[in-house]
Design a protein that fits this description.
six-stranded mixed β-sheet; Protein-Tyrosine Phosphatase, Chain A; Rossmann fold; UDP-N-acetylmuramoyl-L-alanine:D-glutamate ligase
Length: 475
């Protein structure tokens, strides 16, 4: 745990006692702050209390005696409607922060020569893969990688600082909105597509929140920016005009004069005057598709900017196994490949998988996002047949049939997998892929996308094992 010693003697309210809220409360208590923690959910309060968190009903507090409010990133302070705790804080002129701000202040309190390196990653899609890949690379280079933030461990639950560590942080727009002091040695901006607009209001505000990943950087710090997306191109131009940091554009599909780029699957380092091939990503089992190639370029540029060895980075990228639920290669039945992309909870995310594979037996549906799957029409040509589940199934079926894509309402995931497997095996298609890439939230049938992806993997692996037994018996 990182002890929040810069808050010693202060009265700090903490609202929202999930993973990050509990770690923030315990960090503040360990550092000597007087913590007043609360959550609207009684069961969550009981869990927090069992871990040693000091509970106080914030609705009954005198907010004039509170110095700051640590508000869970998932709790709105403005749109669509401010939570009552945020309203109470504002009335008393109490600053609203999050756990990332606590982390930042703790680092800033250390002498410069004793500070660890910080790599911060944001973007609409690809954050988790890029964050995990960077951690994997740093581990392979024999360094201490502390990976957390919006993924895995809460940032204050990471190991205590030491100067040779690398803190690799996935940061959401919600976290960045309440972070003011973080200075990243390498800041990564991957892309920007419409999402979370109920929280930010419009794309301009959403982009402004993401842009905060570059705040406080100074000369010698690295800004790594995906330029395969219009927003990234604009941000890159803006930062170049400021001329205050080392700027490295990255692309997963085209040549760049500077930065890191992937051309026909091969990753090139153009961060200095020379341009060298680093790795053939066609050999990276865990990084299918152009979007993952961009993630690899971003990870390479971020780590290389901090002086780690080029060849070791390249080898580490090829050995990266990938992430669960993100175009995860589950296994094969003959030529049929099962791919778990349950994390694709919107059409933009699903597009990445759909443009990567041919001959797709597509499992989609759930709780639909605005716009449905209309934006995926350019990739319908890759779909041999669709198997639809959940609330969105009837609407998706209409859209697909209007576009002459065979589709059936399978209703439930297991039935969709069984039907897709039967059809894929019976087909004469080259390298067929059974792809769970729902383009929907999971909440109509599953608690979260992880449980949905686990269910897909479990059923797929049952089919793989059965096929292997039958093949062995026949031999």
């Amino acid at each position: 745990m990182i002890e929040a010693k810069t808050f010693k003697g202060k009265n700090i309210a903490v609202f929202g006692l999930g993973r990050t809220g509990i770690s923030a409360a315990l960090s503040l208590q360990a550092g000597g702050a007087e913590v007043l923690a609360w959550d609207d959910n009684e069961q969550i309060r009981q869990t927090a209390a069992s871990e040693g968190v000091h509970l106080v009903d914030l609705a009954k507090c005198d907010w004039t005696h509170i110095d700051e409010l640590v508000l869970s990133p998932g709790v709105p302070h403005d749109l669509p409607k401010p939570h009552w705790a945020a309203t109470a804080a504002r009335k008393a002129d109490v600053p609203i922060i999050c756990d990332i701000e606590i982390f930042a202040r703790e680092i800033n309190a250390r002498a410069h020569e004793r500070r660890p390196k910080v790599i911060a990653i944001t973007g609409t899609n690809g954050k988790s893969t890029t964050t995990s890949l960077i951690g994997h690379i740093i581990d392979a280079c024999g360094r201490d990688a502390q990976v957390g933030g919006n993924i895995g461990r809460g940032v204050l639950d990471l190991d205590e600082f030491h100067r040779s560590a690398f803190y690799v942080l996935e940061l959401s727009s919600y976290q960045l909105d309440r972070t003011f002091s973080l200075k990243a040695d390498a800041a990564v901006f991957l892309n920007l597509t419409p999402d979370h607009l109920d929280r930010h209001g419009d794309m301009k505000a959403y982009e402004a929140a993401k842009y905060r990943v570059f705040q406080n950087q100074i000369k010698g710090d690295a800004a790594v920016i995906g330029v395969d997306n219009p927003a990234g191109k604009g941000i890159c131009t803006k930062l170049i005009a400021q001329n205050g940091r080392d700027i490295y554009p990255i692309s997963g599909r085209r040549s760049l004069g500077r930065g890191a780029c992937v051309i026909k699957g091969k990753l090139y380092d153009a961060m200095s005057r020379s341009c060298e091939m680093v790795a053939d990503l066609n050999q990276a089992a865990g990084l299918d598709g152009e979007h993952n190639w961009q993630n690899a370029a971003a990870a390479y540029a971020a780590v290389a900017s901090l002086g780690l060895n080029q060849k070791t980075i390249g080898k580490a990228i090829l050995s990266f196994p990938g992430l669960a639920h993100r175009m995860e290669n589950v296994g094969y039945v003959g030529p049929v490949k099962f791919v778990n992309d349950s994390k694709a909870t919107n059409a933009d995310a699903a597009a990445q998988a759909m443009k990567t594979y041919d001959n797709i037996y597509w499992i989609a549906g759930g709780e639909a996002k605005e716009g449905g799957i209309d934006s995926l029409q350019p990739y319908f040509k890759n779909v041999k047949r669709a198997y639809l589940i959940g609330e969105a199934a009837p609407a998706f079926e209409r859209t697909l049939k209007e576009n002459k894509v065979p589709a059936k309402n399978s209703r439930e995931l297991k039935m969709a997998i069984l039907c897709a497997t039967k059809d894929a095996l019976a087909s004469k298609a080259k390298n067929p892929v059974i792809l769970l890439s729902p383009a929907c939230a999971s909440f109509d049938q599953f608690k979260n996308f992880e449980i949905r992806g686990d269910a897909f993997r479990e059923t797929a692996l049952e089919i793989v094992r059965l096929y292997q037994r039958e093949s062995s018996t026949a031999a």
